[in-house]
Specification:
By secondary structure, this protein is of the alpha/beta class. It has one domain: P-loop containing nucleotide triphosphate hydrolases (Rossmann fold), CATH 3.40.50.300. It is built from 9 helices and 10 strands. The protein has a 6-stranded mixed sheet, with helices on both faces. Strands 2-1-4-5 form a 4-stranded antiparallel sheet, with helices on one face. β7, α6 and β8 form a beta-alpha-beta unit. The longest helix has 16 residues. It is globular.
């Protein structure tokens, strides 16, 4: 049986008295498009930073493709790509210079790196400004460049922290097409996003973190069935769907984390 692409055992991170991530148990199968959801401050970015070796856990064990991250971090990082929360690009390079630098750092030869950099810049529609520095790119252009850098070496696992934030509809479509192509070639994608419609459209499996704890994990159908069973026991729930409607991921999410949509609340100056 193949090892999970991502495995976390009792993963915990404390910052002084604050427990940001609390003993998470999680397995992501190879080839899954996996959505990792939670409210602001729930621990999503902290979890991704630990899974990618950017932040040491206080407790717990992480394996990526069966490789223990603590024992062999370099072997893990050769197999993964990351689009982090803060992008962390080198602003005084051009897009081409940056991609060639990243490719060489991953051990690609010069010819392969140059070819892939050119293809990625064309695919991301970034090749029309070859002399522009990254610092002069728009936020959306920087997101696309970060994505290109994350995939230039052909990672088997791709971690994406809010990749669609600040990206226009055209660029978003380009990124989605690339991600679906990677899944078709056997890669695993671990995605966090607040845009639940995108997660629902792309992901086959979802985990939800709330106040540092994992409160749900499974396929969308499994989570939907669990929430529907709970709502059927309380038919007066305002967030329940009609018998002929499937619950949306937003409805599932709000029910699991205990959120409510305040439809009737008004602001005094708008009354």
């Amino acid at each position: 049986m193949d090892a999970p692409a991502v495995s976390a055992e009792n993963l915990t991170r404390r910052f002084g008295p604050l427990t940001a991530v609390d003993h998470i148990q999680m397995n992501v199968a190879a080839g899954q498009f996996f959505g990792f959801l939670g409210p602001n401050g729930a621990g999503k970015s902290t979890t991704i930073k630990m899974l990618t070796g950017l932040l040491a856990p206080t407790e717990g064990r992480i394996r990526i493709l069966g490789i223990d991250l603590e024992e062999d971090p370099v072997a893990v990082k050769r197999q993964i790509g990351v689009v982090p929360e803060g992008l962390a690009l080198f602003g005084r390079l051009t897009g081409s210079e940056y991609l060639n630098f990243v490719g060489r750092m991953y051990g690609l030869d010069r010819k392969t790196t140059a070819q892939r950099a050119t293809e990625l810049l064309d695919f991301m529609q970034l090749s029309d400004r070859p002399k522009s520095l990254i610092t002069d790119y728009s936020h959306g252009m920087q997101k696309k460049l970060a994505m290109a850098a994350a995939v230039i070496h052909g990672p088997r696992v791709l971690f994406l922290d809010e990749p669609f934030e600040g990206v226009d509809a055209v660029a978003s479509g380009t990124l989605k097409a690339m991600l679906q192509r990677m899944i078709g070639h056997g890669a695993t994608i671990f995605l966090t996003s607040h845009v639940l419609e995108i997660v629902e459209r792309l992901c086959s499996h979802v985990a939800i973190i709330h106040k540092g704890r994992l409160v749900a994990q499974g396929s969308l159908d499994e989570l939907r069935s669990g929430v529907e069973a709970r709502l059927s026991a309380a038919p007066g729930s305002a967030d329940s769907a009609s018998p002929h409607e499937r619950l949306t991921l937003e409805q599932i999410f709000l029910n699991i984390v205990g959120g409510t949509v305040l439809r009737d609340q008004e602001l005094s100056w708008l009354g």
